[in-house]
Design brief:
Helices cover 34% and strands 26% of the residues. The chain is built from five helices and seven strands.
């Protein structure tokens, strides 16, 4: 099967992603999405929300830490637009959000919440919306691991 790659992700994957926002789309397409997130990180294209930037500063985390979490762990939650129940404005997310939970290089549990959107040119773009560290063993993120 031949298909064009858009921003590193095959266009057929983008079409299926857009049409399958059922909360589990990341499971089927994670390897392609992960590769694209890392590529965009390296190109300086991943946005960091002001809230996430504040949380990274407060928690002494940097982009290298975030890349490590994304590269070495799997997503554990995904929310459609207007369904993310956490953060300062619950249920106001205009883009789907998924969270990735895992241990950083020092063994600390970190959660990275990442919004994914499709641009008018049908490319995916990513924004880190929040970062949580010192994740409790009872956290919904750790329970699923």
């Amino acid at each position: 099967m031949q298909f064009r790659r858009e921003g590193g992700i095959p266009s057929i994957v983008l079409r299926r992603w857009r049409n399958k926002m059922d909360g589990h789309a990341f499971e089927e397409y994670w390897s392609d999405i992960q590769e694209e997130v890392i590529r965009q990180f390296e190109a300086g294209l991943v946005d960091i929300s002001s809230h996430a930037g504040d949380q990274m500063t407060l928690r002494h985390l940097n982009e290298t830490d975030i890349r490590y979490i994304i590269l070495n762990n799997l997503p554990d939650e995904m929310y459609k637009a207007k369904e993310y129940p956490h953060g300062p404005t619950p249920f106001q997310n205009k883009d789907p959000v998924f969270s990735i939970t895992g241990r950083d290089r020092l063994g600390n549990w970190i959660v990275v919440a990442l919004a994914i959107r499709s641009t008018k040119h049908h490319r995916l773009r990513f924004t880190i919306v929040t970062v949580i560290d010192q994740v409790s063993p009872k956290s919904r993120h750790r329970i699923q691991k």
